Each structure stands twice: as structure tokens, then as C-alpha cells.
């Protein structure tokens, strides 16, 4: 059940009457109170159910997606980079006690390819993103390890880097993989259910009604790019690690430049679907393509490997079309 919370008075009383009304309207629309908890499914659940929950709530968890042994391997591969330079990205947003690998994740942990290119992720991304693009792509990859004593991260939305919002169009989705058991005590990712319906405005919405994703390692938290979320505080005595992959519409600029992070000679080590997800394939088909390439590249995928990615909506007409249009 969801309900609207009425406000007794609009915020920012010093504004003009017109701006007060506009602000109050936008502010009220963001006060969608979540009365239903985060939905959890296991890996045998039909994709349709996962997608419906994601669209409805803005976030959903699927537990036990991959085996713990794969997670342990990925953690071992990430360890040297985390220990060497994990704290280089410290700051107000990233935290002072959070270690990160934010560039060339697959170079550090090639086994993570099984998460980035996982069938479940692709099927969910197909449903959310393909209505608005011919093919989507990896936007960014980040390994994150919260050290004991880390404070909570500021809640945020991932798609704010794109200066556009169209109702019903998600620009990207995120997938947080649990490399450890996620609990509220160790800083499991917090999500504000229903916040993907918030209207973008010049003020920050009320995001106080959040819930922590509690899930065993090997599970995945799916969330919309427009869903407000962030790491929780790690009040435990142990570390908590996760891997975040984002996927954006194929006609948008990637958040991280995958062609530099994963140059052709490195990307060529992976299968065609993952190479396409990294951006080594054109968007569209026929004469309407973005990012086309003619030449020799070991990583290039000329034809998208997934049938659903071979979209021909809005393509340039053929010679036969031209004859019909001119009456010849």
C-alpha cells in the first residue's frame, strides 16, 4: 500500500507566492510515502515478476544469483587494487573510510565479467531500457568496500549526470552485487522506495524514508537510475564489499569511458555480448547508426549478439521505399 502524506505548510516561506505554489506542488509530489517493504525474490523467480517490482518500487533484490565461490574469487582479485589505491578516492561523497576501484574493474577482477554479463541482468535491462534504445551499454563499474566505522553516504540518484528527464523513460539502471552479506549494521545499501517517481527540482526532496537492502553475498539489488539510494553506515567490526554496475541507454555518453578503461586488446579477451555492453558495437542498424566503425578492431562486434538488440525502429528507408514515395 502507498499513500500521499499531506504537508501542513509549504517550505521556503520567504519565496514569492507564485514560487511558493510551484515549490509546494513539486515538494508535495515527492512526498510519496512507502508503506511496503523492499521486495525480495530468489533466482528462480520469473523475470516478469522482478521487472514488475522494479518498475513499481524503483528497487528489488534477487537473492543467491551467483555462487559464493565466484564472489570469493572476485574479492581475491580485487584485493591488491583495494589495498594499494582503494582510499585514493576519499571525499565528502565517497567517504573517508571507503575503498574503491573505479577504473578498469575488469582488468583488476576479470571474473567479475560473469556479473556484468549475467543473463539475469541482461534480461532485466532488456525490459527496462530497450523500449527507449536499440542497445544499451555499461555506464560504469565500481568496486566498493566500506571499512568499519564508515558513516552513511549521502542519498543520491545515479542519473543526475544526464540533464534530461522524460516521464516513463529510465536513462539507466544500477545493479549492486553483494560481495559480502549485506546487513543494516554493516552498511547495506539504502534505497528510498518509490523515489523514482520524484520530480526533479531545484531543491532536494525528502528522502528520510529509506530501507536497507539486507541480502546474502551473491545476491543483487536492482534499482532505477532515478531511485534515491546510498551506502549505509558500517557500524560492524568487519568490512562490507559490493560491486556496482550501471547500464545506460546506448545513445547516451557513458559515465566512465570504457574504451580507455577497457581498450580493444583487453576487451577482446571477453565474449561478444560483454564487448557489446562495453560499447564495442553500433547503436541502431542500417543507415541509422551511432558509434559506427569500419576498420580492424579485435573487440568490435558488428552485429549485436542478442536478437532483441537488433532494433530497426525509425531506420532510413530502402530504395524501394524511395520509389514508392516518389511515385516512380
Describe how the helices and strands are arranged.
Blueprint: E1 2-4, H1 17-29, E2 32-34, E3 40-42, H2 47-57, E4 59-63, H3 68-85, E5 98-101, H4 105-108, H5 113-116, H6 119-129, E6 136-146, E7 172-178, E8 190-191, E9 211-212, E10 220-224, E11 229-230, E12 240-249, H7 258-261, H8 264-267, H9 272-278, E13 283-285, E14 288-290, H10 319-326
Parallel strand pairs: 3-4
Antiparallel strand pairs: 1-2, 4-10, 5-6, 6-12, 7-10, 7-12, 8-9, 8-11, 13-14
Summarize this, please?
The chain has 328 residues and is α+β, with helices and mostly antiparallel strands. The chain has ten helices and 14 strands. The chain folds into two domains: 30 residues, no CATH class; 290 residues, Jelly Rolls.
Query: What is the residue-mean pLDDT, rounded to a whole number?
Result: 87
Radius of gyration: 21 Å
Report the span from N to C terminus.
Answer: 61 Å
Helix content: 25-40%
CATH superfamily of the largest domain, by name, is q2cbj1_9rhob like domain
Class of the largest domain in CATH?
Mainly Beta
Structural domain count:
2
Largest sheet: 7 strands, mixed
Looking at the overall shape, the CATH architecture of the largest domain is Sandwich
Individual helix count: 10
- Strand order, largest beta sheet: 3-4-10-7-12-6-5
Give the beta-strand count: 14
